[in-house]
Amino acid sequence: MNPTALDYLLWGALPYVVIAILVGGTVWRYRYDRFGWTTRSSQLYESRLLRIASPVFHFGLLVVIIGHVVGLLIPESWTDAVGITNDQYHVTALTLGGIAGVTTLGGIALLIWRRRTTGPVFSATTVNDKVMYLVLVAAILAGLTTTLLSAVAGLNGEHEVDYRETVSPWFRSVFILQPDVAAMSAATAAFKLHALIGLALFALFPFTRLVHAFSAPVWYLFRPYVVYRTRDREPTPAARPTRRGWS
Amino acid sequence: MAQKIGKVMAQVAMVMNLDKCIGCHTCSVTCKQAWTNRSGVEYVWFNNVETRPGQGYPRRHEDQERWQGGWRRTAAGRLKPRAGGRLKKLATIFANPKMPSLQDYYEPWTYDYEHLVTAPLGDDIPGARPRSLITGDPMRIEWSANWDDDLAGGAELASNDPIVQKIGDKVRFEYEQAFMFYLPRICEHCLNPSCVASCPSGAMYKRAEDGIVLVDQDRCRGWRMCVTGCPYKKVYFNHKTGKAEKCTLCYPRVEVGMPTVCSETCVGRLRYLGVVLYDVERVGKAAAVKDEKDLYEAQLDVFLDPDDPEVQAAAIRDGIPERWIDSARRSPVHLLAKRFRVALPLHPEYRTMPMVWYIPPLSPVVDALSETGHDGEDADNLFAAIDTLRIPVEYLAELFTAGDPGPVKDVLAKLAAMRSYMRRINLGRRPDESIAEAVGMTGADIERMYRLLALAKYDDRYVIPTAYGVDEADRGVIDEIGCSLDFEGGPGMGGMGGQVPFGEASGQPQPASVETFHALRDRQTSDGHSGPARRLNLLNWDGNGRPPGLFPDRRRPAGRDEEEAR
Q1: Fewer CB atoms < 10 Å away: N or C end of chain A?
Q2: Is the pLDDT of residue B324 over 50?
């Protein structure tokens, strides 16, 4: 099947638009809105549910991200080379991915329920948050659908179109500036949908509270406990000397 | 015992003389007006005054078994944040397990004043019902920052004071035997700050020049670990901006040599501000001494004597300006804490090396003695009475010396000696040097302490050098550009941007990022003083013309309206 014009638009052009928005948006946000760069935690309002739901969601999501990195970045030929059969790979990936995905979905479902039912948390929810939640949940749901469909296909012994021969090569090809549109257009509809929602999520990323993920404080592990800083020598507008005289 | 002098650093520190605190809350109110009268921090009091015994604010914050603030000494003799080290902090970053909820502080509220004028005509006088500032819903007021003020609630509430629970039957709540005193609290600006140590982002820092502990609002990511880390619970979470905020020791004032707002407005004139020089290389070891009761002495050993030429040379070597050394030599804090040893640190057992120290209160002892037929101001009678004071020494010791009554008794004896010694002078008798000797002081020392504590002249209380880089000629000059959040509808004006139908927490919230984005862009792209449109101060208006800012701008919600208003 030859790629259509739409395929070229979606899998050849759109990824670069999204990358531009993601990088440019993040730089822009960092330059102009460092003050707004925060988790916007609502723990002060409600802690009991958050203490369960938030770690469940975040840890689930971390596993999901690791799964995506492995699945998208490691070519099939490499796992073949170390003697992992395709079946072994897919059973492991689907099991782990399924568990992590369901955990993440359960976590975010609880979080959204908490957000809707706890008065102060709901009133602190912006439109921006709502759009972000919508896209995030859609991405998780679409991803779980692909997992489910793959699992069902696998159990029935059908030969499902393997994402490692379609989505993954395309994903890698995007970064070497030679998008393999043909590979992606051969993927199943579920994968295409998941990829599109994923792109939407990346495009939204810099403009939502999701940016807090970029400031994961790993550096904390390596710094001394107490931080000293000298006073700002650069005169701020407030400290800038005003001219004397009648000016 | 001359120790080698390591790196010398300067700290602007505070002493509060609890004997003079009348619990008027002026410090709290002026601080709130200056710093936390914005939405998101309605529940926050950088300065609060607690009645002791009492639970404090937030409730029972001294119960570190529960809140896990401060440092813990490990078996190997090292210090680790009590709530856990770096790995544990990162592992629990998705939901801080030890964070006080809003209910532990209190749910802030306002009153539905509008109802007073909009209520339909009726037989009843309309009332203004309390409404939560968090949800906007009607609420029952059941707690506040100061619910147990003046022992309100009696034994029922005060018996939940963690210290009362620890020392048990020493504390009486029967009306005739009850005692109380006031404890104003601000951030301690510790030498070994556990809030700074807890911040995963590295947004909190201790300023190298003056030791003020601050939160970099542009680097804070709202992980909330500092709230847990601070054992005094003096770092707060702004629930609107999602950032930590805390007492700044009014650094814009201190930098130009002015006292903090709480000090300046203190009715009892009980606060002292001054520079202390200390050896930063001794801090870690001193904070980790094995016995908690040694922490007070260990902290005193960290302070350096600014009159010592070797210390002065080391300070200059380490880049401390000479006027700071001069200031340290005249520092009332050094005098009260180190030389006279009448000021004590608050909860040294947290191992944070706090830098706001307290002179413990001498109970109304003179009248009590006089009633029993003794001379209430005779030194021997006073010394003997200290063990039976109405405020139990054990209670004060739990606050100030990790439970060691010795240093507290010494301080109270010195305060009693000062009364007795100065009475003789007031009555025209010869000064009695033996009174001073009995407490290890000289008559001259006592008179100096009397000047500082009883007369408490403004210039003696506040000895603050201007910041490095600020000209001495700028002393006392604060550039009044106003608050950058004070734009129409902005946080400083009681809103968060946009129309606000009810209260400051109602309506569709906008993320704080939207308005700060505009404010920041404005500031970065303009040459002069910028910032959003300011209101005109009517006090300065001569009644002529229409100066900019007199009327709110209709066309443009925020921004430069100065040309247009003409």
Answers
A1: C
A2: yes
Chain B partners within 8 Å of A58 (Cβ): 94
**Beta carbons of A226 and B206 less than 8 Å apart:** yes
Q: Can you tell me the mean pLDDT for B197-224? A: 95
Which residue from A44, A55, A242 is facing B239, i.e. has the nearest CB? A44
**Same domain membership, residue B564 and residue B486:** yes
Find the range with the poorest average confidence among A159-163, B26-30, B164-168, B185-189: A159-163
Cα(A115)–Cα(A125) distance, rounded to whole angstroms? 8
Is residue B131 a part of any domain in this protein?
A: no
- Return d(Cα B227, Cα B215) in angstroms, integer: 12
**For residue B401, what are the domain limits?**
366-441
| B508 with A127: Cβ contact below 8 A | yes
Please tell me which of the candidates B243, B506, B509 has its beta carbon nearest to residue A126.
Answer: B509
pTM here is 0.85
Whether residues B498 and B437 fall in one domain: no
d(CA B408, CA B212): 27
Which of B196, B513, B523, B525 to mutate to test binding with chain A, by most A CBs within 10 Å of its CB?
A: B513
Is B552 a domain residue? yes
Comparison of pLDDT for A231 and B328, the residue scoring more = B328
Q: Residue B500: its pLDDT value, please?
A: 40
Question: Structure tokens of B151?
Answer: 């022992």
Two structure tokens written together for B296: 């007070």
Per-residue model confidence (pLDDT) at position A214: 94
Half-sphere exposure at residue B353, Cβ-oriented, CA atoms within 13 angstroms:
29
Confirm whether B23 is domain-assigned: no
Domain count, chain B: 2
Cβ contacts of B286 on chain A, cutoff 8 Å: none
Looking at the fold, whether B490 and B413 belong to one and the same domain comes out as no
CATH number of the domain encompassing residue B418: 1.10.3650.10
What is the Cα–Cα distance from B93 to A41, expressed in whole angstroms?
11
Residue B324: count of CB within 10 angstroms of its CB: 24
B437 and B487 in one domain? Answer: no
Q: Which domains does chain A have, with CATH numbers?
A: 5-217 (1.20.950.20)
Which residue from B401, B438, B395, B402 is spatially nearest to B420, judged by alpha carbons?
B438
Ligand-binding annotation for A194, yes or no, is yes
Q: Do residue A237 and residue B101 have CB atoms under 8 angstroms apart?
A: no
**Annotation-wise, does A159 bind a ligand?**
no
Alpha helices in chain A (DSSP H): 5-7, 14-32, 48-73, 76-81, 86-117, 119-123, 127-155, 167-175, 181-185, 189-204
* Cα of B89 to nearest chain A Cα, Å: 9
Chain B residues whose CB is inside 8 A of the A231 CB are 207-210, 255, 467-469
pLDDT at B297 over 80: yes
| Residue ending a domain, choose from B410, B426, B441 | B441
